[in-house]
């Protein structure tokens, strides 16, 4: 059946407009256009157009920071390109996928993809493909902090770039500048004789990257933001603080104007580092605090981890040591989360490979091939199960207090906004209780910290037995605990807390130490319209202090519902 020429023209236009959006950095529009093009090509049964649309979609998703989705689309594109026997296209897609895999922490998988792409490039004698393979191998090594090895691959790629397009020429000089930042810091720490030369050459590459990014024909806003940011960082390392900060701020303006959110966060982080070097640690701390909130909201774990660590440094320099400790703890918690996320991502990727293998099994005719695929599927399924166990364990450790096995502060602060939003949406009540052990310092001073830890573990067990499955039970820090009780009004929550208080008071503490007596004070507050999480905690804290001032071993709530004293 002949295809309507108008539909063919529409498909061609969609692909062209999507490519234009990629070049201009308009990722959101480009993604929508590429998906429309793929759907139309699929309806027409046009495999070539399907492959073109999928490759465009993958590149757009990668530029937008949606790296796991990018990798999945690359798998899909690779299947179509294999059916078309387009080896060059497959190699290029593997290069795109490798960058995405590296961004989500799967460096080994990225190098595996690049090894296949390198074989294709050698077989086809494809110099442009070989350039991109070498360039991306360098990126992976730089991510693993092996900057010297990365530089070796970059120099080999640079030799191939002279005859290639503007994208290749910009990418290699910008990547050399970026890798040189880490290389210079390593050389400086080693007191290497070529340290000054590394920085001088890096500045030259960074300046060339800016020139190419500003080219009226081939320059794009995304390239400009990348180039200005790297140039600024190198200027700061060279001691030219004002010029460096201005370059980083220029990168930030471009990123903000064009919606490059991940890149904008990176420029805030880099700008704050420059402010610290200039002696403006207080301003740096303010900017990093805002950046950390944004990184948390966006779910960008790697940059969130970096920002938390730099915020720790800024807070220490300004004498805000308690805040610095909190920031450092967040850095550690995010680091654990990131490890868990990488393990979970690897498990999901293996599941996708299993699905592909099962699909091949359905189409396989030869018994030997079928047995081979089944064996590989069993192996992959075992790996998935192992990774899922690792991911679950890492997730538990990231959200669980190591001593009491209750939710830790990080998990509490993540869950409370969700519980509050759910209560507001459904009109159901939400009550919060803050609990504090009475005279806990006296317990530690009298019987030692080992006994104190045993008391905390025992109290945690009593809390678990007193609460429902859906309640949030956590250790907020030290001897302070927190209960979030969804669906309970304040009077109902007070009754629960009375049970908790009595269970602690009546527990046989002599099993830990003869003569030991433990009591607990509790403040209860029920969320009101317009309350935020901090309001809940502040009101519950205020009532906890009232319980302490009134003699301890009490539950305090609204003045009309005074808690009972020790019996």
TrEMBL record:
Entry's Gene Ontology BP terms: cell adhesion involved in single-species biofilm formation; negative regulation of bacterial-type flagellum-dependent cell motility
Matching CDD domains: GGDEF
Residue ranges of domain GGDEF in the record: 428-560
Keywords annotated in UniProt: Coiled coil
GO MF terms, alphabetically ordered: diguanylate cyclase activity
GO cellular component terms attached to this protein's record: plasma membrane
Keyword presence, Coiled coil: yes
Entry-linked InterPro entries: Diguanylate_Cyclase, GGDEF_dom, Nucleotide_cyclase, Rev_trsase/Diguanyl_cyclase, TPR-like_helical_dom_sf
Coiled-coil segments on the chain, per record: 363-397
One Pfam family named in its UniProt record: GGDEF
UniProt xrefs under PANTHER family: DIGUANYLATE CYCLASE DGCM-RELATED, REGULATORY COMPONENTS OF SENSORY TRANSDUCTION SYSTEM
Protein name: GGDEF domain-containing protein
